[in-house]
Amino acid sequence: MDFSIPVERAAELEDFDVFLKEKVSSNLPTWNREGIVPRSFFQMMGNAGWYGYRWQDERLVKRPGLRETLLLERIAKLSPGVAVAVLIVSDLGLTALNLFGTDGQIERFGAGAVRGENLICFGNTENLAGSDAAGITMSAEKTNDGWVLNGSKAYTTNGLVSDLAVVTAVTEPEAPRNRRISMFLVELDSEGISRKKLNKQVWIPSDLSRIEFNQVFVPDDHLMGNQGKGLQQTLTVFTNSRIPISGLALGTAAGAFDLAVQRARSRMVFGRPIAEFQSKAFEIADFYARLEAARLMVYSAAVAMDSGADFRFEASLAKYLSVEIAKELCPWAADLFGAASVVREHPVHKFPMDAWAVSLAEGTQDVQKLVIFREIMKKRFQSDG
Ligand SMILES: Cc1cc2nc3c(=O)[nH]c(=O)nc-3n(C[C@H](O)[C@H](O)[C@H](O)COP(=O)(O)OP(=O)(O)OC[C@H]3O[C@@H](n4cnc5c(N)ncnc54)[C@H](O)[C@@H]3O)c2cc1C
């Protein structure tokens, strides 16, 4: 498999670095203080063509997953919180619209979504249903010309800043678990919707909101995909976003690693830079090696996704390994900064918490292990007695 980054992609990445420097770096302190990624940034991303989809011939066209993964890695090095806000737009909202939006929904919202004007978030998780996605209780009751939604989505990233939400609700309460849920595209200014921003300590400055639905009417044409197939559709969206979010996890680890190495080289303790103590030098070597191994896994998973092959196994391997290294490396990096690392404004401060956050989203590490185990059994031991 060829993992080299094509020349045109490398040039694109340089352009993206300039974009990040101009549009993100200088604004981050303000965004972090205010706890919001402004809508103007989402539009700049869209107008510059940095999302995972483009609009062509009145259709959404997916850009390569490797490109998306590389871009998210780069944003996350700077700010995992900004990266997740972008991931939601690109890899949950737009992906759901592309895969399960009706022609009418795509025609109405697609072009604006690609430009970062119609922001779409994704709400599945409820208080009593996260990993067990089939356990949701939000209901959608049929009326003559639509549906009435009641319930709440407990943790929705970009919930406050978005215009639309893809949500799941139970439409067939008596049906088996895999046929009782449907997916809807809901305008967030609809009557009966209220949103509350949660006070979180991870992935700053993205917003995480609770969305309440109280007798919210949506017309029939707001159903996405097939009635009763909402669970499968949700899991498909999560599988598609698992490789991009692995790029985000890699960037989280790599951002912390770069800071740690700078610190180890410059900070003098007992008359020598920290890096000259062999125990620390070995830690740097060990983390570098493991980070590179995870990176190869993530890029090879992205190549598999772009080839059109079944990439479920690779996606879970990529998420599992990239998150494991981020969870170990980030607290180590913070530790190298000693007391300075506990100050909220310090650049290294965010990384340990953001590594924890990425372990929870798009399937926890346990969920990845369940998928990996099942795929091992299917792929590797299918023919064994
Ligand atoms: C910062 C942040 C942003 C988020 N944004 C969104 C969003 O935009 N939209 C959205 O819908 N959701 C979002 N979520 C929710 C996220 O998807 C869920 O937190 C995740 O699916 C886990 O669900 P849970 O929190 O209910 O934990 P649970 O599912 O209750 O898991 C609790 C523990 O049990 C373990 N566990 C669960 N099942 C098994 C099993 N079968 N075997 C072994 N162990 C198991 C888990 O690994 C975990 O350790 C967000 C979460 C966070 C933290």
Structure description:
The protein is an alpha+beta fold and 385 residues long. The protein has 3 domains: 7-120, Acyl-CoA dehydrogenase/oxidase, N-terminal domain (Butyryl-Coa Dehydrogenase, subunit A, domain 1, Orthogonal Bundle); 122-228, Butyryl-CoA Dehydrogenase, subunit A, domain 2; 232-380, Up-down Bundle (Butyryl-CoA Dehydrogenase, subunit A, domain 3), CATH 1.20.140.10. Helices cover 52% and strands 17% of the residues. It is built from 11 helices and 12 strands. It has helices at residues 7-25, 28-34, 39-47, 65-78, 80-100, 103-114, 230-266, 278-306, 312-336, 350-360, 365-380, and strands at residues 53-56, 59-62, 120-123, 139-142, 146-157, 164-170, 181-187, 193-197, 208-219, 223-224, 268-269, 272-273. The strands form 4 sheets. A 4-stranded mixed beta sheet has the order 3-6-7-10. Strands 4-5-9-8 form a 4-stranded antiparallel beta sheet, covered by helices on one side. A two-stranded antiparallel sheet has the order 1-2. It is globular and about 80 Å long. It starts with 6 loop residues before the first helix and ends in a 5-residue tail after the last helix. The model has no long low-confidence stretch (mean pLDDT 96). Residues 88, 122-125, 130-131, 155-157, 202-203, 208, 357, 360-361, 364, 366, 370 line the site of flavin-adenine dinucleotide (FAD).
Task: List its salient traits.
11 helices; 3 domains; Butyryl-CoA Dehydrogenase, subunit A, domain 3; Butyryl-Coa Dehydrogenase, subunit A, domain 1; Butyryl-CoA Dehydrogenase, subunit A, domain 2; four-stranded antiparallel β-sheet; binds flavin-adenine dinucleotide
